[in-house]
From TrEMBL:
<dbReference type="InterPro" id="IPR023214">
    <property type="entry name" value="HAD_sf"/>
</dbReference>
<dbReference type="GO" id="GO:0009507">
    <property type="term" value="C:chloroplast"/>
</dbReference>
<dbReference type="InterPro" id="IPR006439">
    <property type="entry name" value="HAD-SF_hydro_IA"/>
</dbReference>
<dbReference type="InterPro" id="IPR036412">
    <property type="entry name" value="HAD-like_sf"/>
</dbReference>
<protein>
    <recommendedName>
        <fullName>Haloacid dehalogenase-like hydrolase domain-containing protein At2g33255</fullName>
    </recommendedName>
</protein>
<dbReference type="Pfam" id="PF00702">
    <property type="entry name" value="Hydrolase"/>
</dbReference>
């Protein structure tokens, strides 16, 4: 189990004691079938500046792997008919319900039952686990450029282990549900940055959830990239400041183009 650094401690490390400069924020580049052409800044002579990037941190379910879990059925099984109806109503109004945080407020017996239901759905999903198109090619590219890759998932460690074994890919560190607090809290991402010795401003968080992945990355001060394969999030102009990613792509293949056009990819810093 990796050493846990509390969120306040991590924030002090990076934002008060660190010599690293704060991240340069980008305007959103919505990508379709072509690489991003949006500049991340201007040097004053009309030449766009590129962001520096030393590491990428990925979500797993729906990002590195094809979505296979029926979350609607899982939520209904955990929350019951009335609870699920309330969840749907809250989601429709924009409030949403974080089921893991919701369960933590329950009495221990109810918590145990809920976690067992979630684990059952996750095990069923593992039987149908598939790698997301473009994931292997992207990882090979990152390896060729010596760019670190990590993983943050709200799934359990056993699922991460199976993912590593089945597809021959390894993400270091790989933080699962056993690491608290969960996304969208920035602590998991800040923890990875501390292990790498890299400031969040030189890391990108990539995931398929605005609420979990993008918010986690933005709160940590990292670049953020939303993977929206089906267009379910609609127009970027409808996003709130809290959930507006720096980039939006419809496939992992577009991430490779994004890295080549928008960033200076830097090898990890030398350690002594």
């Amino acid at each position: 189990m990796p050493l846990f650094l509390s969120q306040p401690l991590l924030r002090r490390f990076f934002f008060f004691s660190s010599p690293f400069s704060p991240p340069r924020r980008l305007h959103l580049a919505a990508l379709s079938s072509s690489p991003a052409s949006m500049p991340s800044g201007d040097s004053g002579d009309g030449i766009a500046k590129k962001g520096r990037l030393r590491g990428l941190v990925f979500d797993m379910d729906g990002t590195l792997t094809v979505p296979v879990i029926d979350f609607g059925a899982m939520y209904k099984a955990v929350l019951g008919e009335e609870g699920y109806a309330a969840y749907r109503a809250a989601s429709a109004s924009g409030g949403g319900v974080d089921i893991l945080h919701h369960i933590e407020a329950w009495p221990p017996p109810a918590q145990q039952r809920a976690y067992e239901i979630i684990a059952r759905f996750e095990r069923q999903g593992l039987d149908r686990l598939q790698i997301m198109p473009g994931a292997l090619e992207l990882c090979r590219y990152l390896d060729s450029r010596q760019i670190r890759r990590g993983l943050i998932t709200r799934n359990v460690k056993s699922a991460v282990d199976i993912f590593h074994q089945r597809f021959g890919m390894e993400f270091i560190p790989a933080l699962s549900r056993e690491f608290r607090p969960y996304k969208p809290d920035p602590a998991p991402l800040l923890h990875i940055c501390s292990i790498w010795g890299v400031p969040p401003s030189q890391v990108m968080m990539i995931g398929d959830s605005l609420r979990d992945d993008v918010v986690c990355g933005k709160r940590a001060g990292a670049f953020t990239c939303l993977l929206d394969e089906t267009g379910r999030y609609g127009s970027p102009h409808s996003y709130t400041d809290d959930t507006r990613p720096d980039f939006k792509v419809s496939s992992l293949s577009q991430v490779l183009s994004l890295l080549e056009t928008q960033f200076d990819l830097m090898p990890p810093p030398q350690t002594t």
